[in-house]
Amino acid sequence: MKYKTVIGLEVHAQLNTESKIFCSCSTEFGAAANTHACPVCMGLPGVLPVLNKKVLEKAILAGLATECSISEYSKFDRKNYFYPDLPKAYQISQFDKPICKSGKIRVKSGEGFKDIRLNRIHLEEDAAKNVHPEDASKNYSYVDFNRSGTPLIEIVTEPDISSGDEAYEFLSKLKQILRYIGVSDCNMEEGSLRCDVNISIMPEDAAKLGNKVEIKNMNSFKAVKLAIEFEYKRQLQMTEYGETIVQETRLWNADKLETYSMRSKEDSHDYRYFPDPDLAPVIVDKEFIEKLKSSLAELPDAKIDRFMKDFALPVYDASVLSSTRELAEYFEKTVSCGANPKKASNWIMSELLAHVDDSEKMESFIVKPESLAKLLLLVDKNVINGKIAKTVFADMLQSGDDPEEIVNKKGLVQVSDTSEIEKIVEAVIAANPQSIADIKEGKAKAAGFLVGQVMKESKGKANPQIVNEILNKCIAKL
Predict the structure, then answer these.
(1) What is the CATH code for 418-477?
(2) What is the DSSP track for 260-293?
C-alpha cells in the first residue's frame, strides 16, 4: 500500500518591538538574567497586563503580507498548563478569535509552485526560560524571566505540506516575508523563530487523517526537513508491522538524527481555554487596517515581477537580487546611479556577493551603490576594460576609495591608441610563429593565445576589441 505524508507547521516568530507584549520591559536579547523583568513578566498577584499597540500593528502586517483576512474583533484567552517557566500557570494567547485568519504562502514544489494555506496567525506571550546546571548531579534549575512576555505571533498552517522539501521552502519563504516587512529578525539562534511540526501518514486513497505526531526542539530549517524524513520512515515502518501510531510529542536529536518520545500530546480541550478577564477584546476598524496596508513594504514576489518587467532581468537574476530587501535596494540604487541593470545584476551576483557574509547588512558594505555604478560606467565608456575593473573592485573592497581615483592614481586607463596596440601586436606575432602556423591550419585556440599575450604585454590595459581587430588584420596580411 502506498502512503502519503501529511504535514502542518506551527511557527513562532518573535516580533521585534522594543518592549514586551503586556508591559514596558525591554525585549533586548543577551542581557544578564532577570534584568528585563517586572511583576507583570513574573506573574505576581495583582498585576494587570496592557496590550502593546506596536505588537498588534506588526501582527496585522504579517497577516496582510500573507493574504490573511484581518479580524475586526479578536480577543485574548488563557491557555492553562503548569510548567516552572510559566508562574501564572497559564499563557495569554488567542484561541477561537485570532487576529488573522485564512491566509496562504506560495512556495516552490517540484517543477512548479504550490499554495500552502494558513489557518491563522495569532498573538501570544512567550514563556520564561529554564536554565539547567551543566552538572547533572545538581538537582535544581534556575528561571530567567527576560524572555517572559516577549511578543510572539504563531503562524499555523493547514495540513497542506507533503514533504520535508516543501516544509523547508515554506519556512524559507515565511522568513523572507517577515524580514521584508520588518516585523521580526527571525534569528533562530536567538530563538526569534521556532518551529513545531505535526506529521502523520495515511494511505493515498484514504479520506481520514492518521494520528499526528508533534516534533519539537528543532533549531534550523535543515533539522525540520531531516526530522520529517525520519518520522515518515518511522511511522511507515510501524504501520507496515501493524503497530499503532500514538498521538504524542517527540523531540529531535540532532546528533543521532532521530526523534524520540517526550510526552503524550494534549488536545486543545486539555488547556481549558477561557477569555482573559484582564484584557479587553481587540477591536480594529477598516480604516486602521487600510492605513497599515498602505505602509506595507513591497513583497518579494512582487519585487521579482517588477525587476523582470522594469529591468528586463531573467527570473533567476530577479530572484537572487530580491532574496533580501537590503540587497534589492542596493541593486536599485546602483541602477538609479546610471548603471546598466543587467551589468549591475551580473556584477552584484558574481563579484559582490562573493564578499558579502550577510546581504541583510548591505548598508555597512564598504562599496556603496554609487561607487559600483561609477565602476560599471568606466567600463561602458571604455575607460577601463572588464579585467581591469575586477582589479579596481578588489582595491575598492580594501580601501573604499572612489573607482575613478583608483584608476587615475594607478594609471589603469585602458589603452585605445591603435598605433600603440599595433606595435604590441606585431611584436607578439613575431615572437610566436608557431601560433601563426596553427591559425592558418584552422586552430582557433591559437588566436586566443595571441590575444592573451597582447593583453599580458599591455599589462591588461589594451582595449580587447581593438586588439582583436588589429590582430585579425595583421594575420590576414601574412
Answers:
(1) 1.10.10.410
(2) EEEEEPPPGGGG--EE-TTSPPEE--HHHHHHHH
